[in-house]
Task: inverse folding
């Protein structure tokens, strides 16, 4: 794909990634400044802000993980890799806004509440652990860190798989028992993660066949 087209696509991806935040920010501003009109965030603004930012974080994280297996489908898709870092950073951005929503609107910036939640509520422990894993990945997403860390960078960034799994576990532990809402996104993550060993297996088979034909 020509460089200009990739740049244009990057602008579109930036807009698509920013859209959930801009919509939630506009709804929040509207509801705070027009208390007498219909609330755009709905009857439970805390849940709306938490769910909106949580879903954005999880979806963008899984899209960023899908880039490697999709890119393998054809050599002409190599340019997709140029979107991985920006998507990873947007996933971290939304997870951080999500954390701020929790700290302000759920925990009321009250330290004992946070400690209590972190010691008792397993979905908060899973969510917080996912965020803690995304933090070093975001901090080492610069070209300088990639050069500096060398091979360790690849090893460190495998933590993204664990962060995505913890995000999914967090979601399952939030919904009531028997509710299967998280199932669809869980299947998508499973396919994205299993695509990697599947491609390695296909490669090994191809190599074996070439060796046998040689
Ligand atoms: C940083 C630490 C985190 C905290 C304290 C936290 C806390 C919360 C809370 C309080 C809710 C709302 C629960 C409810 O409605 O009862 C929630 C929902 C959600 N969180 Fe997190 N979370 C964190 C990290 C994450 C991360 C890293 C992800 C994704 C990668 C994520 C994805 C979600 C999703 C998808 C929902 C919506 C679930 C639903 O609609 O039922 N969260 N989180």
Result:
């Amino acid at each position: 794909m020509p460089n200009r087209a990739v740049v244009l696509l990057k602008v579109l991806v930036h807009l698509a990634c920013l859209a959930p935040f801009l919509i939630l920010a506009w709804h929040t501003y509207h509801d705070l400044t027009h208390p007498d009109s219909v609330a755009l965030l709905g009857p439970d603004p805390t849940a709306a802000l938490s769910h909106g930012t949580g879903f954005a974080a999880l979806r963008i994280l899984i899209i960023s993980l899908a880039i490697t297996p999709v890119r393998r489908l054809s050599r002409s898709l190599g340019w997709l890799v140029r979107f991985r870092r920006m998507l990873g950073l947007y996933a971290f951005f939304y997870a951080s806004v999500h954390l701020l929503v929790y700290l302000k609107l759920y925990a009321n910036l009250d330290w004992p509440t946070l400690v209590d939640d972190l010691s008792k509520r397993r979905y908060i422990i899973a969510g917080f652990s996912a965020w803690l894993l995304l933090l070093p990945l975001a901090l080492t997403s610069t070209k300088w860190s990639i050069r500096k860390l060398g091979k360790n960078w690849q090893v460190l960034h495998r933590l993204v798989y664990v962060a995505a799994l913890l995000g999914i576990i967090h979601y399952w532990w939030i919904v009531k028992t028997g509710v299967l809402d998280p199932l669809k996104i869980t299947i998508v993550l499973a396919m994205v993660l299993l695509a990697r060993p599947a491609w390695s297996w296909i490669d090994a088979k191809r190599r074996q066949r070439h060796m046998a034909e040689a």
Observations:
- The pocket of protoporphyrin IX containing FE is lined by residues 47, 50-51, 54-55, 57-58, 61, 95, 98-99, 102, 106, 124, 127-128, 130-131, 167, 170-171, 174-175 (CB under 6 Å).
- The mean pLDDT is 93.
- The radius of gyration is 20 Å.
- Residues 31 and 89 are 29 Å apart (CA to CA).
